[in-house]
## 1
Amino acid sequence: MRLTEEEQTMLAGELGPVRQWAVRHQIAVGEFFDAPDFVPVGQAHVMADTESLGEAGVAWLEGLAAAAPAHRRVRIPTITDPRGLDFASYKRLKQTDAMAAIEARAIAAFEALGVLMTNTCINYQTILPPVRGEHLALGDTGVVIYSNSVMGARSNFEGGPSALAGGLTGRTPRYGYHLDAHRAGTLHFDVQHQPTDVADWGALGGIVGRAANSYWQVPVMTSLEAVPSSDQLKHFGAALASFGSVALFHMPGVTPEAPSLREAFHGRAPPGATPISKADFDAFYASYAAAGDKVDVVVFAAPQLSLFEMSQVAGLLDGRRIHADTSLIVATSPEIKFAADRMGLTRRIEEAGGVVAAGVCFYQSYAREMAEANGWRRLLTNSAKLVNIIAGYGYEPMLASMERCIDSAVAGKIL
Amino acid sequence: MPIVLQCHKGIGPAVTGTALVARDNFSARYDLDRLEGVFSRPTHKLYGQSYVGQVLVLVTAKGGVASAWMLHEMAARGMAPKAIVFDRANTILAQGAAFAELTLVDRFAAGDPTVLICTGDELRIEPAEGLVTILNRA
């Protein structure tokens, strides 16, 4: 990789051992992907829940945090993905004091590095939306795909160590989705059944994701009749990234790099379209279906809820009571939680028996241990991303609309 | 007679180890019981098998960004694979290997390594040179 004078200074250790580690790490990754050089980035977003970090990861962060302040502080706004635990609600979810203790250590280390603890996977809705053409170092696959596709920003999936390195150096290796060549459409899907609610949009993301199945594929969706909302695109993108490892999509007429179908494919002739029919949606839902079973836990998360989604949950729960044998959990960002508190939404959800957790996103929060401690197995959600990933933690997940999820939570069984 | 395979320059130190091969993918978060050191997703082709100290040969990496931390955490407990060989890596596993200083190579001149390499083969992996040598065919 070509290095600037400043990058060579960092590599030589003249700006301290923390930045030296960061630039070394980035060069190893950049050379693996044939990056010609570095590109400056405007924000870094670090995924670093304590379940993933483990003792080894937290001790490593504490090592960085022990460096001199001038050497250890990030150079650009650096924010965080959801944490492993919400100190205000962890006891109600039967998470342990040991989990809280390691969480507190990780937070102290990040704060010493100058990281802003936003604890959110919807930063593009709540913190500072990316701008078209802006280069970024983002963690969380849902954040990357939304920022790349809906905003036209440029980021790869940056794992926690790499995103933190980006915050420390203010740059990232120029490869993958930073380059025009990788941003052209590669697959074409003709959506013949119109998704309605966010569960449908997540299902569509799951269907396309299963078909695309590669970080390097860029699917293009046509025949969608209405312009989707931010929440619908949030669930679509999160599912597409989760099922397919996909980081960029185009919707001609909707997303900024695809004013037309032709431009979605950078002027090349589009490949033959794969149709997606109602039968494909039905089969997707059927692959996670179960009726009549007791429902142990209803989860609204993955991604965290927007203020509008919080309002929708509160409205559907008004005057009702969640069944005594069923738990209902809503995960949102700290910013939205403050707003929901102020506007009375949290009170309405909790009066019905729900738990509103802030700064977490359920699956990154010791999901296996929560299942064991609470006796949870059957999980109902409107998040296609969550049904994809939670089975590995010992749950039996089912996908349904928010209305059906809440009706089932009240009945205590899947309706 | 050793068989020499050319690949893209990789990450991590040169190592020697025994291959464990499957036409399947890899996610540290969703496929593994990291405490026991075995593949734990029932639908994975290596379900129930130990990956500790093995050279994993798989198609690609799947799943979220957590794998980037998890390889480091597994290595710290001595429960990591010796190396990972992919047909094509994604960004997260490349970053995770760089962070954990774990050996990782991909992009073979002769095609898909899950076809070129068999379970039980003794491999010498030299990431800096972009070479994988099959020392003893299983």
## 2
Amino acid sequence: MFKILFNKRAIKPLAAMLLVGILSGCSSSASVQITSDFPAVLSEPKPVSASIVFDESFATYVAQPDKNTVIDLGTAQIKLLSNAFTGLFEEVEFVSDRETVNGDYKLVIIPSIREVQVSTPSDNYLNVFEVWIKYNLEIQSADGETIDSWFMPAYGKTPDAFMASKSNAIEEAAIIALRDAGAKLMLDFYRIPAIYGWMMEQQILEESK
Amino acid sequence: MKPTINATTSPTIKIASILALATILAGCSATTTIDEYRPTADAIDLNPNERVVVLGRRDAGHYETDREFIDCVAKRMKGADIGVVPEQQFIDSIYPWFEPRTAPKGLPRLKRLMQDPLIKGQVDSQAVRYLVWLDGSTETLDQGGSISCAIGPGGGGCFGFAQWDKLSVYEAIVWDMTNLQEMGRLRVDSEGTSYLIGAVAPIPLLTPVKSDACSSLGNQLKLFFSAPEKL
């Protein structure tokens, strides 16, 4: 066995395989699919009914922030935002098309992604991988009138680790960015001036106090 | 003629080798300093059914308090019979209120959060009495020397010498989740130099700076929570 391992003929392919392994570890491209689950939000929903429109382009969204990086966000962002909206509204329905919205629901929200950006240690000269997801929420009343178009940026970062792959680091940063999107939504949705005004108009704030 | 080692010089060589090894290993030890502040010298009350959670601060722009360090400190504390809730379990159970964006940075914000019956209920259901915030990082400060490795048909090897300094700085703040007050602060600074000697095979002489910071901080936190007979 020892002789076989240290036979000169055997060393060359082994060395070649080792070199290929090392070089693939140094690869600068990353293709990531986020399959993570997200925790349920801990929140008391307000007495508002809302239809959330996850259209097909949003549900299957694949970001390509640069030529070397692909992040499949579609499934994960649907899971995350479904959780978050369930914590915001007492009654909520999820539809795939604006046309199929139930007219009894008072708000219609259509999320979309404006842009996804990534930054690696070679870009930012820091020991962190960063991911930004810039969401836009088109918020309408039941009759189709726009209440607000809300820009909702989310950010995640993860430390660079010795010999860790770029794909794993970007995946981790994207998961943190998605969790941040949920946190931003929970924290700030009812602070949007237009939403606050709409709720005053609908006398919802008094009901929920 | 074959070189031979004289039996009378052998003990000298052994002593010299031991001294050289001791010098090298001494050069690889970290210098660690701990500063502690707490209002009283008494150990913090922690009933057997109460638990502690150790969380990392992750809101700084240029570094992250790494999970590996948090786990290391939590393991150290568990060793002293202190019930420790895993970090991710606690953060998930209370999502999204302890994410980097939403986590309370001071006691006034914690007091506001704990006024929410849902959040307070979740903290109480896990019997979390104390929260330890850890904030800091380990950085490479200075590096010098060079080492090069080559491989050819006849064999390969590494030649040269490299060294680098690492500094770990971590601060721990202990919050009482029942009385909503700060119970004390700890700061650990650990610094050391590591070496890599290339003598055909690369020989690393690594100084465990982060591990030293973890054990020092963990041991000191044990003293915060434990009566002397527990240690």
